[in-house]
Design goal:
By secondary structure, the protein is of the alpha/beta class. The chain is 25% helix and 29% strand. It has a seven-stranded mixed β-sheet with strand order 2-1-3-4-13-12-11, with helices on both faces. A four-stranded mixed β-sheet has the order 6-5-7-10, with no helix packed on it. The protein has a single domain (6-207), classed as 3-Layer(aba) Sandwich (Rossmann fold). It contains six helices and 13 strands.
Length: 211
Amino acid sequence: MKSNLTGVLNYTTSNSKSLVSALEAIDTKYIVAKNFIELVGCDRIIIPGVGNMEFFFEENDVNFLRVQCLEYLRNGGLIYGICLGMQLLLDHSSEGNTKTLGLISGEVVSLKSQFSYELNVGHNELIMNNKTKVIKELFNDIDKKEKFYFLHKYHCINIDNEYVQLKTIFNNNPITALLYNKNILATQFHPELSGKVGLNFLKNFTLLRIK
Protein backbone atom coordinates (compact mmCIF):
# COMPACT_ATOMS: atom_id res chain seq x y z
CA MET A 1 0.00 0.00 0.00
CA LYS A 2 1.04 3.59 -0.63
CA SER A 3 2.39 5.39 2.39
CA ASN A 4 -0.14 7.51 4.27
CA LEU A 5 -2.52 7.97 1.33
CA THR A 6 -6.30 8.31 1.64
CA GLY A 7 -8.59 7.06 -1.12
CA VAL A 8 -12.03 8.59 -1.72
CA LEU A 9 -14.64 6.49 -3.54
CA ASN A 10 -16.57 8.87 -5.78
CA TYR A 11 -20.06 8.04 -7.03
CA THR A 12 -22.62 10.19 -8.82
CA THR A 13 -24.57 11.48 -5.81
CA SER A 14 -21.73 11.58 -3.27
CA ASN A 15 -20.49 14.75 -1.61
CA SER A 16 -16.89 13.81 -2.34
CA LYS A 17 -16.04 17.46 -3.13
CA SER A 18 -16.84 18.49 0.47
CA LEU A 19 -14.79 15.58 1.77
CA VAL A 20 -11.85 16.46 -0.48
CA SER A 21 -11.99 20.08 0.74
CA ALA A 22 -11.79 18.81 4.31
CA LEU A 23 -8.86 16.51 3.51
CA GLU A 24 -7.03 19.43 1.89
CA ALA A 25 -7.72 21.55 4.98
CA ILE A 26 -5.89 19.00 7.15
CA ASP A 27 -3.05 18.55 4.61
CA THR A 28 -3.84 14.91 3.89
CA LYS A 29 -2.65 13.27 0.68
CA TYR A 30 -5.53 11.70 -1.22
CA ILE A 31 -6.73 10.30 -4.53
CA VAL A 32 -10.31 10.14 -5.82
CA ALA A 33 -11.69 7.38 -8.04
CA LYS A 34 -15.05 5.95 -9.10
CA ASN A 35 -13.64 2.43 -9.12
CA PHE A 36 -12.77 0.82 -5.77
CA ILE A 37 -9.97 -1.17 -7.40
CA GLU A 38 -8.13 2.05 -8.22
CA LEU A 39 -7.95 2.86 -4.50
CA VAL A 40 -6.69 -0.43 -3.04
CA GLY A 41 -3.11 0.86 -2.88
CA CYS A 42 -4.18 3.46 -0.30
CA ASP A 43 -3.74 2.93 3.44
CA ARG A 44 -7.38 3.89 3.99
CA ILE A 45 -10.47 4.33 1.83
CA ILE A 46 -13.38 6.63 2.66
CA ILE A 47 -16.84 5.97 1.22
CA PRO A 48 -18.57 9.37 1.53
CA GLY A 49 -22.23 10.04 2.16
CA VAL A 50 -25.30 11.55 0.48
CA GLY A 51 -27.49 9.82 -2.05
CA ASN A 52 -29.75 6.83 -2.41
CA MET A 53 -28.91 3.19 -1.74
CA GLU A 54 -30.55 1.95 -4.95
CA PHE A 55 -28.69 4.51 -7.06
CA PHE A 56 -25.38 3.55 -5.45
CA PHE A 57 -25.81 -0.10 -6.36
CA GLU A 58 -26.86 0.77 -9.88
CA GLU A 59 -23.30 2.04 -10.28
CA ASN A 60 -21.60 -0.62 -8.13
CA ASP A 61 -22.25 -4.36 -8.27
CA VAL A 62 -22.91 -5.40 -4.65
CA ASN A 63 -21.25 -8.81 -4.85
CA PHE A 64 -18.18 -7.62 -6.74
CA LEU A 65 -17.66 -4.64 -4.43
CA ARG A 66 -18.05 -6.89 -1.38
CA VAL A 67 -15.27 -9.17 -2.63
CA GLN A 68 -13.01 -6.19 -3.32
CA CYS A 69 -13.65 -4.72 0.14
CA LEU A 70 -12.98 -8.02 1.91
CA GLU A 71 -9.70 -8.49 0.06
CA TYR A 72 -8.66 -4.92 0.84
CA LEU A 73 -9.45 -5.44 4.54
CA ARG A 74 -7.52 -8.74 4.63
CA ASN A 75 -4.52 -6.89 3.23
CA GLY A 76 -4.60 -4.44 6.12
CA GLY A 77 -6.56 -1.58 4.58
CA LEU A 78 -8.94 0.58 6.61
CA ILE A 79 -12.44 1.40 5.33
CA TYR A 80 -14.41 4.38 6.66
CA GLY A 81 -18.05 4.81 5.62
CA ILE A 82 -19.84 8.13 6.19
CA CYS A 83 -23.67 8.36 6.36
CA LEU A 84 -24.81 6.42 3.25
CA GLY A 85 -21.28 5.02 3.19
CA MET A 86 -21.91 3.68 6.70
CA GLN A 87 -25.29 2.21 5.85
CA LEU A 88 -24.13 0.33 2.77
CA LEU A 89 -21.59 -1.59 4.91
CA LEU A 90 -24.44 -3.43 6.69
CA ASP A 91 -26.38 -6.49 5.52
CA HIS A 92 -29.60 -4.98 4.20
CA SER A 93 -31.33 -1.62 3.72
CA SER A 94 -35.06 -0.96 3.68
CA GLU A 95 -34.28 1.88 1.27
CA GLY A 96 -35.41 0.09 -1.86
CA ASN A 97 -35.33 -3.26 -0.04
CA THR A 98 -31.69 -3.52 -1.05
CA LYS A 99 -29.04 -6.09 -0.25
CA THR A 100 -25.93 -4.25 0.92
CA LEU A 101 -22.28 -5.23 1.42
CA GLY A 102 -22.60 -7.27 4.60
CA LEU A 103 -19.28 -6.13 6.09
CA ILE A 104 -21.09 -5.21 9.32
CA SER A 105 -23.82 -7.37 10.84
CA GLY A 106 -26.98 -5.25 11.02
CA GLU A 107 -29.68 -3.58 8.98
CA VAL A 108 -30.79 -0.13 7.88
CA VAL A 109 -34.35 1.12 8.43
CA SER A 110 -36.08 4.48 8.06
CA LEU A 111 -36.32 6.80 11.02
CA LYS A 112 -39.99 7.30 10.16
CA SER A 113 -40.70 3.60 10.75
CA GLN A 114 -39.64 3.92 14.40
CA PHE A 115 -39.96 7.56 15.43
CA SER A 116 -42.23 10.59 15.12
CA TYR A 117 -39.89 12.34 12.69
CA GLU A 118 -38.46 11.14 9.39
CA LEU A 119 -35.35 13.33 9.19
CA ASN A 120 -32.44 13.88 11.56
CA VAL A 121 -30.72 17.12 10.59
CA GLY A 122 -28.44 19.41 12.55
CA HIS A 123 -25.55 19.33 15.01
CA ASN A 124 -25.83 16.76 17.80
CA GLU A 125 -23.63 15.60 20.66
CA LEU A 126 -22.39 12.03 20.90
CA ILE A 127 -22.82 9.90 23.99
CA MET A 128 -19.16 9.37 24.85
CA ASN A 129 -19.48 6.25 27.01
CA ASN A 130 -16.77 4.15 25.39
CA LYS A 131 -13.09 4.45 26.28
CA THR A 132 -11.46 1.90 23.98
CA LYS A 133 -8.05 2.80 22.55
CA VAL A 134 -9.36 3.58 19.07
CA ILE A 135 -12.17 5.80 20.39
CA LYS A 136 -9.64 7.73 22.47
CA GLU A 137 -7.45 8.19 19.39
CA LEU A 138 -10.36 9.25 17.16
CA PHE A 139 -11.50 11.87 19.68
CA ASN A 140 -8.08 13.06 20.77
CA ASP A 141 -8.26 16.79 21.61
CA ILE A 142 -12.03 16.80 21.00
CA ASP A 143 -14.24 17.85 23.90
CA LYS A 144 -17.01 15.36 24.70
CA LYS A 145 -19.57 18.17 24.44
CA GLU A 146 -18.66 18.99 20.84
CA LYS A 147 -21.38 18.49 18.22
CA PHE A 148 -21.24 16.76 14.84
CA TYR A 149 -23.46 17.33 11.81
CA PHE A 150 -26.14 14.78 10.93
CA LEU A 151 -28.38 14.62 7.86
CA HIS A 152 -30.20 11.32 7.29
CA LYS A 153 -33.59 9.61 6.97
CA TYR A 154 -32.33 6.07 7.64
CA HIS A 155 -30.34 4.61 10.51
CA CYS A 156 -28.55 1.43 11.55
CA ILE A 157 -30.08 -1.13 13.94
CA ASN A 158 -29.47 -4.66 15.26
CA ILE A 159 -25.71 -4.18 15.20
CA ASP A 160 -23.58 -7.11 16.33
CA ASN A 161 -22.20 -6.58 19.85
CA GLU A 162 -18.64 -7.11 18.63
CA TYR A 163 -18.71 -3.59 17.24
CA VAL A 164 -17.78 -0.58 19.33
CA GLN A 165 -20.74 1.79 19.18
CA LEU A 166 -21.36 5.41 20.07
CA LYS A 167 -24.89 6.82 20.10
CA THR A 168 -26.58 10.17 19.68
CA ILE A 169 -30.08 11.19 20.73
CA PHE A 170 -32.88 11.50 18.18
CA ASN A 171 -36.52 12.01 19.15
CA ASN A 172 -35.52 11.30 22.79
CA ASN A 173 -34.05 7.92 21.86
CA PRO A 174 -30.48 6.72 21.28
CA ILE A 175 -29.52 5.87 17.72
CA THR A 176 -26.20 4.67 16.36
CA ALA A 177 -23.76 7.45 15.45
CA LEU A 178 -20.48 5.51 15.15
CA LEU A 179 -19.38 1.90 14.64
CA TYR A 180 -15.89 0.46 14.79
CA ASN A 181 -14.39 -3.01 14.65
CA LYS A 182 -10.95 -4.13 13.45
CA ASN A 183 -10.41 -2.35 10.10
CA ILE A 184 -13.87 -0.83 9.65
CA LEU A 185 -15.01 2.59 10.87
CA ALA A 186 -18.43 4.07 10.14
CA THR A 187 -20.19 7.24 11.24
CA GLN A 188 -23.72 8.44 10.66
CA PHE A 189 -22.49 12.02 11.11
CA HIS A 190 -20.56 13.98 8.48
CA PRO A 191 -17.17 15.07 9.82
CA GLU A 192 -16.49 17.00 6.61
CA LEU A 193 -19.56 19.18 7.36
CA SER A 194 -18.95 19.53 11.11
CA GLY A 195 -16.55 22.46 11.10
CA LYS A 196 -13.35 22.45 13.14
CA VAL A 197 -14.38 19.47 15.29
CA GLY A 198 -15.00 17.43 12.15
CA LEU A 199 -11.60 18.35 10.75
CA ASN A 200 -10.01 17.24 14.03
CA PHE A 201 -11.86 13.94 13.79
CA LEU A 202 -10.75 13.37 10.19
CA LYS A 203 -7.16 14.22 11.11
CA ASN A 204 -7.25 11.72 13.97
CA PHE A 205 -8.69 9.13 11.59
CA THR A 206 -5.81 9.57 9.16
CA LEU A 207 -3.38 9.03 12.04
CA LEU A 208 -4.90 5.66 13.05
CA ARG A 209 -2.53 2.76 12.71
CA ILE A 210 -4.55 -0.46 12.68
CA LYS A 211 -2.64 -3.73 12.92
